[in-house]
Amino acid sequence: MKNELIPGLARTETYVTTQEMRARQLSADVFSTPAMIGLMERTCVELTEPHLAENEQTVGIHVDVRHLAATRIGQKVTVTAELLEVKGNKLRYAVSATNDQGVKIGDGTHRRAVINTTRFAKGTES
User: What is the mean predicted confidence (pLDDT) over 103-112?
Assistant: First the structure.
């Protein structure tokens, strides 16, 4: 990790919801909880990647998120991730999502671990 990976860094990304992101068990075309969490994780990854060494990546290790409101497929969702804490190789983020009508649809925390990709590929990363 580079020294500039510090609490307070934030990133906001806007995504268009697609049919692949729908809650398949429902008859209505609405955005699913797993898809929302996936976009939250993706935003955390994109926030962190510029601050990693060449042989480093992050992996998700914990998600604690609430899905607060429905969003129809085709709407835009804006996700914000803020790095709250760096402890060794462990990172903790605040995450939130809002739809294009200004409705907060999700929030919570996410944790990731920085790994050495060479050691991880060999199965020696802990």
Answer: 98
DSSP secondary structure, 101-120, as one string = TS-EEEEEEEEEEEEEHHHH
Of 92, 83, 106, nearest in space to 17 by CA: 106
Domain boundaries, the chain: 10-121
**Which pLDDT band holds residue 2 (cuts at 50, 70, 90)?**
confident
Residue of 45, 58, 100 whose CA lies nearest to 77: 100
The secondary element (H helix, E strand) that includes residue 67 is: strand 56-67
Name the amino acid, one letter, at 113: A
- Euclidean distance between CA atoms 51 and 38, whole angstroms: 21
- Residue 124 pLDDT: 61
Tell me which of 3.40.50.150, 3.40.1280.10, 2.160.20.10, 3.10.129.10 is the CATH number of domain 10-121.
3.10.129.10
